[in-house]
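User: Please run a holo structure prediction.
Assistant: Happy to. Please share the sequence and the ligand.
User: Here you go; the ligand is copper (II) ion.
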Amino acid sequence: AKARHFRWEVSNMFWSPDCEEKVVIGINGQFPGPTIRAKAGDTIVVHLKNGLHTEGVVIHWHGIRQIGTPWADGTASISQCAINPEETFTYRFVVDKPGTYFYHGHYGMQRAAGLYGSLIVDVADGEEEPFKYDGELNLLLSDWYHESIYTQMVGLSSNPFRWIGEPQSLLINGRGQFNCSLAAAHTPGAKQCAGAGNRHCAPVILPVLPNKTYRLRVASTTSLASLNLAVGNHKLTVVEADGNYVEPFDVDDIDIYSGDSYSVLLTTDQDTSANYWVSVGVRGRQPKTAPALAVLNYRPNRASRLPASAPPATPAWDDFARSKAFTYRILGRGTPPPPATSDRRIELLNTQNRMGGVVKWSINNMSMVLPATPYLGSLKMGLRSALPSAARPSDTFGRGYDVTRPPANPNTTVGDNVYVLAHNATVDVVLQNANALARNVSEVHPWHLHGHDFWVLGYGDGAFRGDAGDAAALNLRNPPLRNTAVIFPYGWTAIRFVSDNPGVWAFHCHIEPHLHMGMGVIFAEAVDRVGELPKAAVSCGATATALMAGAGAG
Ligand code: C2O
Ligand code: CU
């Protein structure tokens, strides 16, 4: 294992991700940011300089558990103070497990402004993956808005509410096409994109040789969109999800929610004289965004030869039965089974409500607000008055709640949002979806846990029927280990994890505007066992004041 050092500077810059020039947040002049590639067991050291002129920044390493280094998790107001303009913070952490990961901004809505990149961990020397392949292709998927994140954030907190709407384009490795199609001949009403020219939005070309097997690494860091990926004429075999191996299964296409990552194997066994489309389209919400296309280029065909056939069609956005069928097929392979029983069950009801007239998402009727003093510092230093409120969140929401109707009480509150977990407890969380404020609306929410992988024990429709019903029917035999799990409209999802990683961890919906509107909670796990916090992680808010008082006294 070795240490890999990076010097990064984050800055705003002009860029044309979908051929329209906008401002993006880039790293070292690149968008998306540089790909980190490492081997399991390596230590990653990123010296991150904030080159934004007037706002803080942090970077979260999505899927990396940060065992023993909770202050390097990169969540503003949770694991650290945001890095001020012109200042540098050093992230140092071990990538202990091979897999497909990514990193992204975790302050305000900076992820949606383009602050993201890939993080790929190969097996350690001498180790082998449980499947074989000849080559690898990496696809980082995102969605892109033409409005700035500042306009978006003002809209979300305005009364009347202004929703951000659907994205203008979908991006593959930071490239998309707005208002034109690479496959216009097959797309009624679309105009053909003007050829080469703009290097920022040139089509993504994936070069392959015939009769080989490729590992496609696919991760989604979308702000809003749930996606589906298909490759014309080719089957896909799913082998990895969120950095964990899964029992291989064959599909024509995969669904991928924000925060998910997959590896799929693809064999180049089709007519070698042609190229093929890779198509990425929207699912789960009525799409207003054209699919993103890339070209699977069978060498030695010219890359510029566009596939003659139509791109594969994205399955109907509202075919949730199909989405569920895909999701339910994902099962663990060689992963340890979960403990047979749990010590605690936390039931989290997701509702849409209002606070002071402003629309919020809340969990057991508390909407998450992020305090000036990061939770890790305030909890470790015992500064409870620095939490957003004294009100503790509840482990249940009460059985009678009717998930099929808008909330009877449309108003939500502020709490401290903190679930205190004992060390080494087995914790079950049941995420319960419900109707939003408007009638007959219930949305998809992909929930992501920091600091852990969890077993996904089961999914169901309607209200979770506790011990008598659903709890007895969970999969304890071969559930997949993941770090992100979706809840389907009006449904529930049950997960289990062991609180064996002292720290303070965010658990939230990975849809950026939903998180911004309060859709998350904090798990504080054996904080007394957390090692000494780096000063730079606590040099703000009440922890800074406490540190200065301590320094003065000393
Ligand atoms: Cu990738 Cu807290 O998120
Ligand atoms: Cu959500």
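The chain has a mean pLDDT of 96.
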